[in-house]
């Protein structure tokens, strides 16, 4: 008979934090949410830390280069989705590493032989009205001109009119030269009343565009997560099949950390993948692994050399793994169990292996609970999918807007590899759904408000660091009747 674990599987909503004494210096401004993301020895510092304990999910509908830049600017990390070709994933990593605040690699490019109809199509798809015209239509080709909506009249110009007939040609353009600072570029934009400034190299190949609207980027966020060369830090998802080709391409592109992306990580394939990475690169290439939901899974991956271990099976908002396969565990129980295993491992070996609570965060305070329960950082999909910076379409829905969000195990993502234990069996059924999430505006604003809430709770619990809340926090279980007491109750709400 299978062993029965009698402890019920619990979720975040079943717990609350109790306040501790708040001392006068325990104010939001003094709360430090920095946290390790890779293993380190007792008494040493980790090679890589986050400035806020947030990572964005390894998903097509969440983490591309734009999300990675927006989140790194705020101190967290994105893991670019691995359910794409090696080349396109590496290209996204490269875009993050090449990104300089305010300097944009042009993603709206055409050739002079394209037509007005192509311009309108591209404008519709990208939402950008400025297009760089290059010899070969690539973002780094020889710059031949620029097209903006001031260059054509849709009411009078024929749709087959060639771009070369109406673009502003390179000889009439003011350009900046590679190496120029953002302040200098902005000065040129202001002096000449431009909307954008192409930056070119010595051979007049396009390198970047600088836009007037990005002027505010001149000021760097003090929380930004940067490497030693002041480039944004970025992660990337990998799988346990093509890692011998994928990891070298990602390393070449400049990735800072990779993570094996699987709904179930307690497997020999993950151990082989970690070992190959460590044998090939030593500790230079950091690798996270998972997902696990209990002590044995954690220890297996920690022993294999994982830099961090990700927790969670079936708790994701778009995930139906538990319904389909009957495996998984409530996210709170999983975090508590794995956190105890992480501490035990540290006691025994003197090696600290950070853990990440992945999926199932519904309310902002669930993040605080996950941290108090022992997580070093969290991974979120639904939360980030709603922001402007996620890669998906914003769609009108009733009186407001929604954004699309689909699981990596859904038919839409067709990332069956993630749900496939190496054989063909995993290809037969879906483990995720295709959905909408409420549109949440700009990431800077939403994340700023979430961070403020987390820090306020830390202060109520007398904690100024994540370790403080883990060591001194007190959690209590809630009864189902006390849950209804926690929301507005027994009043008639206005505006409803
Ligand atoms: P959530 O933040 O609750 O939306 O959960 C995101 C997590 O859900 C991901 O980081 C991943 O672990 C998991 N996921 C992604 N796709 C699927 C699926 O299709 N079942 N699950």
From TrEMBL:
Cofactor: K(+)
GO molecular function annotation: IMP dehydrogenase activity; metal ion binding
Gene3D superfamilies in the record: Aldolase class I (3.20.20.70)
Pfam families: IMPDH (PF00478)
Catalytically driven reaction(s): IMP + NAD(+) + H2O = XMP + NADH + H(+)
Sorted UniProt keywords: CBS domain, GMP biosynthesis, Metal-binding, NAD, Oxidoreductase, Potassium, Purine biosynthesis
PROSITE patterns: CBS (PS51371), IMP_DH_GMP_RED (PS00487)
Ranges for domain CBS: 167-225
Annotated transmembrane regions: none
Keyword Cell inner membrane among record annotations: no
CDD domains to which the protein is assigned, alphabetical: CBS_pair_IMPDH, IMPDH
Residues holding K(+): 314, 316, 319
InterPro entries in UniProt: Aldolase_TIM, CBS_dom, CBS_dom_sf, IMP_DH, IMP_DH/GMP_Rdtase_CS, IMP_DH_GMPRt
Residues that bind NAD(+): 261-263, 312-314
GO annotation, biological process: GMP biosynthetic process; GTP biosynthetic process
Protein family per UniProt: Belongs to the IMPDH/GMPR family.
Protein name as annotated: IMP dehydrogenase
């Amino acid at each position: 008979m299978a062993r029965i674990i009698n402890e019920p599987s619990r979720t975040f909503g079943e717990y609350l934090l109790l306040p501790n004494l708040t001392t006068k210096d325990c104010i939001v401004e003094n709360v430090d949410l920095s946290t390790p993301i890779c293993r380190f020895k007792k008494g040493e510092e980790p090679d890589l830390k986050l400035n806020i304990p947030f990572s964005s999910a390894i998903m097509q509908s969440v983490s591309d280069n734009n999300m990675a830049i927006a989140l790194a600017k705020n101190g967290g990390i994105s893991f670019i989705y691995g359910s794409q070709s090696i080349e396109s994933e590496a290209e996204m990593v490269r875009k993050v590493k090449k990104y300089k605040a305010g300097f944009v690699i042009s993603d709206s490019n055409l050739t002079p032989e394209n037509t007005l109809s192509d311009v309108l199509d591209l404008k519709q798809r990208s939402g950008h009205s400025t297009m760089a015209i290059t010899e070969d239509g690539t973002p780094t080709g020889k710059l031949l001109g620029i097209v903006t909506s001031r260059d054509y009249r849709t009411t009078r110009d024929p749709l087959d009119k060639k771009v070369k007939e109406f673009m502003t040609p390179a000889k009439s353009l003011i350009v900046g030269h590679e190496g120029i600072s953002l302040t200098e570029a902005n000065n040129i934009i202001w002096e000449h009343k431009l909307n954008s400034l192409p930056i070119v190299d010595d051979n007049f190949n396009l390198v970047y565009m600088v836009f007037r609207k990005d002027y505010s980027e001149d000021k760097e966020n003090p929380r930004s997560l940067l490497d030693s060369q002041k480039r944004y830090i970025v992660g990337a998802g990998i799988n346990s099949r093509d890692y011998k080709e994928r990891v070298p391409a990602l390393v070449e592109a400049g990735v800072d950390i990779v993570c094996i992306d699987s709904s179930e990580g307690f497997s020999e394939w993950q151990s082989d993948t970690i070992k190959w990475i460590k044998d090939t690169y030593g500790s230079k290439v950091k690798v996270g692994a998972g997902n696990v939901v209990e002590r044995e899974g954690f220890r297996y991956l920690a022993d294999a050399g994982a830099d961090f271990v990700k927790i969670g099976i079936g708790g994701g908002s778009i995930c139906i793994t538990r319904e389909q396969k009957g495996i998984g565990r409530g996210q709170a129980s999983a975090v508590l169990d794995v956190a105890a295993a992480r501490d035990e491992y540290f006691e025994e070996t003197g090696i600290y292996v950070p853990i990440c609570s992945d999926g199932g965060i519904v309310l902002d305070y669930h993040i605080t609970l996950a941290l108090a329960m022992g997580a070093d950082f969290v991974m979120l999909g639904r939360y980030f999918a709603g922001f402007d910076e996620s890669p998906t379409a914003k769609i009108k829905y009733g009186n407001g807007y929604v954004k699309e969000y689909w699981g990596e195990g859904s038919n839409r993502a067709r990332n069956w590899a993630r749900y496939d234990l190496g054989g063909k069996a995993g290809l037969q059924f879906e483990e995720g759904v295709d959905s909408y999430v409420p549109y949440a505006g700009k990431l800077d604003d939403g994340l700023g408000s979430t961070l403020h809430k987390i820090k306020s709770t830390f202060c109520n619990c007398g904690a100024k660091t994540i370790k403080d809340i883990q060591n001194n926090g007190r959690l209590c279980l809630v009864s189902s009747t006390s849950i209804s007491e926690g929301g507005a109750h027994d009043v008639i709400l206005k505006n409803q």
